[in-house]
Specification:
The complex is a heterodimer of chains A (about 60) and B (about 450).
Chain A: H1 3-14, H2 21-37, H3 39-43, H4 56-59
Chain B: H1 13-21, H2 27-45, E1 48-49, H3 53-68, E2 80-84, H4 112-119, E3 123-128, H5 157-164, E4 170-175, H6 181-187, E5 190-193, E6 213-218, H7 221-231, H8 238-241, E7 256-260, H9 270-285, E8 289-293, H10 298-323, H11 330-341, H12 344-368, E9 372-376, E10 389-391, E11 397-399, H13 400-405, H14 409-414, E12 418-425, E13 431-437, H15 443-457
Parallel strand pairs in B: 2-3, 2-4, 7-8, 7-9
Antiparallel strand pairs in B: 1-3, 4-6, 5-6, 5-12, 9-13, 10-11, 12-13
Helix pairs in contact in B: 2-3, 5-6, 10-11, 10-12
The chains are: A mainly alpha (about 60), B alpha/beta (about 450).
Chain lengths: ~60, ~450
């Protein structure tokens, strides 16, 4: 069993979720896809946790 | 005219109120017509759940008596209204189209927005069909009244279909990734996704709490804003509000409207693109300045909304997944499985990504001094029920759910208010929808633009 597959199965087990063998491959595929899709965002530095665009100046017209 | 012709009963809330006041018809007649239409067409459209005809007629009689009293009556007295079956209405079940909730007890109290809406005088016709747990765009078994072989969109599909089919004049939807705007677009009705956090979600079954946004749906921008006032508990302002939206339309001189390139132009049905060009031309005629701009973070915004939504959905439903996975439909089950097992670093990265995306869209509005952005609500018109992938002119394909949320999802990440309005028909006679995206908390300024464009497009 691949490392990812093992990880997915173990994580599900910890959460009390039973993943049938017939569903495992597609779940692993979805997991890989999600990790790939979010790779760039995950690699970016975390901004200041309180930073937000929704301060009053956002809505000020010009 | 077919049995489900959406043009057969085009009365608006504003017109209906006028006719009720002028005694052109009574509430009894209006509600009676609604019930007849439901009886004649809803077997095919399947927009409604739990409609109680006798109660409705009794309520209509009460409203008619209230209207005859000398003192001022509630501003939306007698207007037939639908509530998405994700939202609690006292005395009704909130099943959320979930097998696991089929025997759930009736809600003992109204959701906060229903509580406010009740005071406005509307008559609740019943609950409207949603996608299972609001997690998707099909809203099965509901069908699109424009062509019942096609989907109404989702997850507020029943609300949009009911309005389009003339079986109510307004309804509540909720929007997490496009669930108000997608069905509004596919069914040719109007919908407002307010600024995230502006409207209470108390008494509403969650899909993704940090994105879930309830909003009103109707036939016109003015009607939608009347419902918006009512759901906020400010229905006393409705009679004055109508003056803000002159039936003849209004000008947009001094306004700057952005038209987004690249991400928002890729894989769009040609008639939808033509409808956008037509809408832009109308905005110019109204005096608005059109600004072409590119938002580099649009794709990122979409990814952030998608991942936040599935992770939070995973948390909401993982108990059910652990105990009774067989009670979940395949689409929901897949979403919950992946959402539950994604590692924490994805979650934290998405939260950080959301802040970056909000900053980048704020910068774009500032740089171009934009009042709003216009973009198609959906890249295609209503797909057929069995159409699980969309094929494009360049030969590429896309999952139908992914296609329909592609242009809506980014605005859930930014949390901005979005007005979805009808913008013409495609070659098959199916509705096309346009979205106007405003600045946070500026629903009224956005409604002014949407109303002007709506009038110009008529």
């Amino acid at each position: 069993m691949s490392e990812v597959k093992e990880h997915v199965r173990e994580t599900a087990k910890i959460l009390g979720i039973e993943i049938e063998d017939s569903r495992l491959d597609s779940l692993v595929e979805a997991w890989k896809q999600a990790m790939e899709e979010t790779k760039e965002i995950r690699q970016q530095p975390n901004p200041h946790p309180t930073a937000t665009a929704f301060d009053p100046t956002w809505s000020e017209k010009r | 005219m077919t049995a489900t012709d959406p043009n057969s009963n085009p009365v608006t809330i504003r017109e209906a109120l006028q006719k009720l006041d002028d005694k052109v018809f009574s509430t009894r007649q209006l509600i009676g017509d609604v019930l007849t239409r439901i009886q004649e067409t809803d077997e095919e459209v399947i927009a409604w759940l739990d409609v109680r005809p006798q109660n409705l007629m009794e309520m209509a009689d009460v409203q008619d008596r209230r209207r005859m009293l000398p003192q001022a009556h509630a501003p939306l007295l007698g207007i037939p209204f639908g509530v998405k079956d994700l939202i609690d209405v006292s005395g009704y079940q909130t099943v959320c189209n979930m097998e696991a909730r089929e025997d759930v007890e009736e809600a003992s109290r109204d959701a906060e927005i229903v509580h406010h809406m009740r005071k406005s005088g509307v008559i609740f016709v019943g609950k409207t069909v949603t996608q299972e747990a609001a997690a998707g765009i099909y809203s099965d078994p509901c069908r699109n009244p424009w062509d019942t072989n096609r989907i109404p969109g989702g997850s507020s599909g029943g609300s949009a279909a009911a309005i389009a089919n003339g079986t109510c004049l307004g309804a509540f939807g909720t929007d997490t990734g496009g669930s108000i705007r997608i069905p509004a677009s596919l069914c040719g009705v109007t919908g407002l996704k307010p600024t995230y956090g502006r409207v209470s979600t108390e008494g509403i079954f969650p899909l993704s709490p940090s994105l879930d946004t309830p909003g009103p749906m109707a036939r016109t921008v003015a009607d939608t804003m009347a419902l918006y006032l009512a759901m906020l508990g400010s229905s006393s302002e409705i009679p004055e509000m109508w003056n803000r939206f002159p039936v003849s339309g209004s000008q947009l001189a001094g306004m700057r409207i952005g038209v987004l390139t690249s991400y928002f132009n890729e894989n769009i049905q040609p008639e939808v693109m033509a409808a956008q060009e037509n809408a832009v031309a109308k905005l110019r005629e109204l005096g608005a300045e059109i600004v072409e701009c590119d938002w580099q973070d649009a794709a990122k915004a979409r990814i952030v909304a998608k991942q936040i939504s599935r992770i939070e959905c995973g948390q909401v439903h993982r108990g059910l997944l652990a105990t009774s996975p067989d009670l979940m439909g395949e689409e929901l089950r897949k979403r919950v499985e992946i959402g539950a097992i994604l590692p924490a670093d994805v979650w934290f990265a998405m939260l950080a990504g959301r802040e970056q995306v909000k900053q980048s869209i704020a910068d774009l509005y500032k740089e171009h001094q934009l009042d709003a952005i216009i973009a198609p609500s959906t890249p295609v018109t209503a797909p057929k029920v069995e159409e699980k992938t969309i094929s494009y002119a360049d030969g590429s394909t896309e999952d139908t759910g992914a296609a329909l949320t592609r242009l809506t999802g980014p605005w859930n990440t930014t949390g901005q208010p979005v007005f979805a309005i009808p913008a013409g028909l495609d070659d098959l006679g199916l509705p096309i929808g346009m979205s106007l995206i405003g600045r946070p908390d500026q629903e009224w300024e956005l409604a002014d633009i949407a109303h002007a464009l709506e009038c110009a497009l008529k």
